[in-house]
Amino acid sequence: MYKNVLVPLDGSAIAECALDELRKMAQEGWGCVGSVTLLYVVEVPAHWVAEGANVLDVVQFELGRGQDYLGKMEETLAAENVTVTSVILEGRAAETIVQYAKDNEMDLIVIASHGYSGLKKWVFGSVALRVLHDSNVPVLLVRPKQPGT
After folding, report:
1. Is residue 63 part of a domain?
2. How would you list the strands of the sheet with 33-42, edge to edge?
3. Total structural domains within the chain
4. Is 77 inside a domain boundary?
5. Which of 35, 42, 62, 100 is 20 to 30 A from 92 via CA?
6. Burial readout 11-41 (b: 16 or more C-beta within 10 A, e: otherwise)
7. Distance between the two ends of the chain, CA-based, in angstroms?
8. pTM of this prediction?
9. pLDDT in tens, 91-142
10. What is the per-residue pLDDT across 7-28, written as a single tens digit (0 to 9) for each?
């Protein structure tokens, strides 16, 4: 049984594929899910600071956006009888996810991969792959369905 499941979300439909997998896990009973924590990480790109952007305004905007988004996700899951909480943190996404999972004794991280490959993966990196590589907590990596599948 996975008593504490962490699901990092970034506001994208791709990231929400992790919720679909979580629902399957609960319905099929192969990994009875206890409580779910939705994690939204606010990350301010370094080049914004270098370009003189008002970082405090950006962070405040992103925090508000994250609260609204997670509130909607929480309502949806609560309506499906899932025990859910939400957390918003500032930091580098992969590092923050891994550290939160460790500090809060998560049993499983369910995260979607954006499916980048080649040069795009090299340029943008992959939060999901870094989490998979760095975490001591088991990670279920969900690949989004391709259109038409």
Report:
1. yes
2. 83-90, 33-42, 2-8, 108-112, 139-142
3. 1
4. yes
5. 35
6. eeebbbbbbebbeebbeeeebebeebbbbbb
7. 30
8. 0.85
9. 999 999 999 999 999 999 999 987 655 544 444 458 888 999 999 999 999 9
10. 999 998 889 999 998 888 877 6
